[in-house]
Amino acid sequence: MKLYNTLTRQKEDFIPLIPKKVKMYVCGPTVYNYIHVGNARPVVIFDTLRRYFKYKGFEVTYVVNFTDIDDKLINKAIEENTTVKELAEKYIREYLIDVRGLNILVDETINPRATDHIGGMIKFIKALEEKGFAYNIDGNVYFDTTKIKDYGKLSKKNPDELISGARVDINDEKRSPSDFVLWKKEKPGEPSWGSPWGKGRPGWHIECSVMIRDILGDTIDIHAGGEDLQFPHHENEIAQSEALTGKPFANYWLHNGMINVNDEKMSKSLNNFFTVRDVSQEYDLEILRFFIVSGHYRKPISYSRETIHQAEASLQRLYNSKIKLQSLLEKNPSGKLDDAARMKLVSFKSDFEKAMDDDINTADAVTALFETAKYVNSYFDESTTKETVQYTIDTYMDMANVLGILYKVPDEEISDVAKQILEKRNEARTNKDFRLADELRNQLLDMGIEIEDTRDGVKWKKIN
Ligand SMILES: [Zn+2]
Predict the structure, then answer these.
(1) Assuming Cys at both sites, which of 91, 250, 340, 384 could form a disulfide with 223, CB separation 3.0 to 4.6 Å?
(2) Ligand 1 centre from 210 Cα, in Å?
(3) CA of 225 to the centre of ligand 1 (A)
(4) Is the domain of 312 the same as that of 293?
(5) Residue 16: helix, strand or coil by DSSP?
(6) Are residues 83 and 207 in the same domain?
């Protein structure tokens, strides 16, 4: 399996630290608001990678942090007339609702909160200070980037860019503009913790380094996040962690591209974002997940009503094949597993794995699923043996499970008789026997089932 490593700017074979085990960390949300569609991309993509590792028999330790102390939280808490702690609790709850809607393996995810690791952060900063990598100026502690020879190795920025790109709060106190804050001195009314440098709170970058070390150890396999985090956040995580331990921090750095709206990056600062919650009012979040996995994760994708509608229709096509298979499974006769079908399915699955092995090319993996659907639609009918149908549905769902889609069970309240009529009507339409199709549509209506023919297949709903 190859992964594109931002650190080396090339695709590399994935070799885990411990055979068949993966330690993986994805930078998580700052919990002061609902997440937007751009935030959903790393959430979905790296969950898909985790699912693929599991599919290949790896044991995955998967960590996504919550940044629950930060300027943004402090300001929003004032705005909402609440405490930082309550605000964080609220948006952690909302985040978990959204990511469950996106079919993320929430129950297999470790979600540490920054404020539960303050003690570890203080120890970490203290050790950096003792080693000469940090300096204290009147209660603010900074990391000394000039002590790091390879500072900038991830983002490949030259020293001038590192300085001009550093956070704008350029502050005369710092020895060098690219130095960054590890510990911030208390300001009146802000949450604070006692430390050797007086009361204060941690800077943002130190949080991830400490949670990673506390939970996963000095070196991890994969560190992932949005490409906008490469600099300064990830660069600074590397600097401080490697300064402390003298060991490589993460062997593979994975970054996803941005989601654009009208050719501009979707972001809170541009105010062109849609929250996942907004989207969920109009569409099933499975459609958003499918939209995200339909593109290659490192390329930008465009979000619009049209692209979401396309995703909705395509997903429905995949569901239609699943429904067809389930219906055939119920009524078809037993017999031998058809060898030609088996070989065809093996080749679809091998295409799927090849795509996923090539730097998680989910776009091509989705194509393999469509090829399977097309094959089922063209060649499967009442004469296909139950064994062949079962083998196909297993293969189909193995692939769908990696992508985290097609997990919904169709409305169980539709009786078998109704399903059979629906199937007959599909056949009638395929044979262009529209008179029969209309007759069957009326039969379904009499049973309280309304059907709608879309460009991409049939949808039904129950009516009273
Ligand atoms: Zn981080």
Answers:
(1) 250
(2) 10
(3) 8
(4) no
(5) coil
(6) yes
Ligand 1 centroid – CA 285 distance (Å): 25
Beta strands in 162-238 (DSSP E): 180-185, 200-202, 220-226
E strand or H helix at 258, and its extent? none
Nearest to 347 by CA among 372, 316, 384, 315: 372
Is 35's pLDDT higher than 60? yes
Q: Tell whether 214 and 312 lie within a shared domain.
A: no
Give the Å distance between the CA of 432 and the centre of ligand 1: 57
**411 found inside a domain:** no
For residue 101, the CA-to-ligand 1 centroid distance in Å is 24
Q: Which domain holds residue 185?
A: 14-302
Ligand 1 mean position to 200 CA, how many Å? Answer: 20
* Model pLDDT, residue 263: 78
CB 166 within 8 A of CB 178: yes
**What pLDDT does residue 316 have?**
95
Adjacent-strand bridge partners of 3: 12
Rounded to the nearest angstrom, the distance between the alpha carbon of 234 and the centre of ligand 1 is: 6
Q: How many angstroms separate the alpha carbon of residue 19 from the centre of ligand 1? A: 26
Judge if 138 and 266 occupy the same domain.
Answer: yes
Please give the distance, rounded to the nearest whole angstrom, from the Cα atom of residue 194 to the centre of ligand 1: 23
Count the domains in the chain: 3
Distance (Å, whole) CA 416 – CA 425: 14
- Report pLDDT digits (tens) over 198-239: 999 999 999 999 999 999 999 999 999 999 999 999 999 999
**Rounded to the nearest whole angstrom, what is the distance from the C-alpha of residue 23 to the centroid of ligand 1?**
15
Regarding whether 369 and 251 lie in a shared domain, the answer is no
Residue 240 alpha carbon to ligand 1 centre in Å: 12
